[in-house]
């Protein structure tokens, strides 16, 4: 399932680092973060159930990262 979320990230480099961290997580098939639109697309069996894990991984890379549900 593919699902898009509104996010907050400060810079393009941070967005790329977060994307790379998310792609390494178990259960995530793909992730794309668009810094310009502040959107993240997750491809996973159940993306909503992985949001806490995704947020935790991103906070390690970029403390200001946020997912707006």
Helix fraction, binned, reads 25-40%
Shape: globular
- How would you spell out the order of helices and strands? EHEEHE
- Count of beta strands: 4
Number of domains: 1
CATH architecture call: 2-Layer Sandwich
**DSSP summary: helix tally:** 2
Brief digest:
The chain has 69 residues and is of the alpha+beta class.
Describe this structure in words.
- With 69 residues, the chain is of the alpha+beta class.
- It has a single domain, classed as Alpha-Beta Plaits (2-Layer Sandwich), CATH 3.30.70.
- It has two helices and four strands.
- A four-stranded antiparallel β-sheet has the order 2-3-1-4.
- Helix 1 packs across helix 2.
- The longest helix has 12 residues, at 12-23.
- It is globular.
- The model has no long low-confidence stretch (mean pLDDT 97).
């Amino acid at each position: 399932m593919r699902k898009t979320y509104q996010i907050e990230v400060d810079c393009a480099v941070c967005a790329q680092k977060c994307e790379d961290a998310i792609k390494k997580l178990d259960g995530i098939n793909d992730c794309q973060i668009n810094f310009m639109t502040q959107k993240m697309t997750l491809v996973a069996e159940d993306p909503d159930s992985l949001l806490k894990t995704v947020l935790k991984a991103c906070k390690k890379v970029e403390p200001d990262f946020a997912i707006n549900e």
